[in-house]
Specification:
single chain; 10 helices; 222 residues; elongated
């Protein structure tokens, strides 16, 4: 079972590398969205420093959503999803493998690029550690919640718009506590409560998200 899980993750990673343009599109959107904010609010360093954490988190959240619609779409179109549903391998673990591959190709690159965006937005030095840690703990929840949404809209017309309506409200707690962790560090208070809540959200999503996602996938195949 462990080897099947790893094989599915490796398969999705290879597919992502063959379609590297999708990953680059996510990163390009993240960078462009972060760069556009200073043009809208002005180049004042103090203003940018105050909104830097929120800008990075909002841009990362929106960028991660770009690739969520196709999380299961390719497998649905080429028939691979039917094989997953009928295989002895638990479909819930297949959902976890797909979400992990999505995080490795989307969430992890965003985490790596985020400090550069923080530097561009004049983020204070005290905020970099909490920002990276919050993204590392919060972005897995985005991939897991997004997997549920992607499974629910699979095969639907205008699935992208419907997916946004479904999952954006669920992303709000991650956004609030992610930004709160950085703001707490910048104001001299402890970021630990926010970090712990983010970890709890990701663990809760890890435990709960595979079940409704797998149920929705079975329904889509039928």
């Amino acid at each position: 079972m462990r080897s099947s899980f790893a094989a599915l993750v490796v398969r999705d990673l290879r597919l992502a590398l063959r379609q590297a343009g999708d990953v680059l599109t996510v990163l390009a959107f993240f960078v462009l969205a972060s760069v556009l904010f200073p043009l809208g609010v002005g180049p004042e360093p103090q203003m940018l420093a105050r909104i830097a954490a929120g800008v990075v988190w909002v841009a990362a959240l929106l960028a991660a959503m770009l690739s969520m619609e196709r999380l299961f779409q390719t497998d649905y179109e080429d028939g691979a999803l039917e094989l997953m549903v009928g295989a002895p391998f638990p479909l819930e673990l297949a959902v976890l493998a797909k979400a992990l591959a999505h995080w490795l190709t989307t969430g992890l690159p965003l985490i790596l690029v985020a400090p550069l965006m923080g530097l561009f937005l004049n983020l204070d030095a005290e905020g970099y550690g909490p920002l990276i840690l919050a993204l590392a703990l919060g972005t897995p929840a985005l991939s897991l919640i997004g997997a549920v949404g992607a499974a629910l809209v699979l095969g639907a017309r205008r699935g992208g718009a419907l997916l946004s309506l479904l999952i954006l409200p669920l992303f709000v707690p991650v956004l609030i506590f992610g930004v709160g962790a950085v703001e707490a560090a910048l104001t001299g208070t402890s970021a630990e409560p926010h970090i712990l809540v983010l970890a709890a959200i990701s663990l809760g999503a890890l435990a709960l998200a595979p079940w409704p996602a797998a149920a929705a996938l079975r329904q889509a195949v039928e």
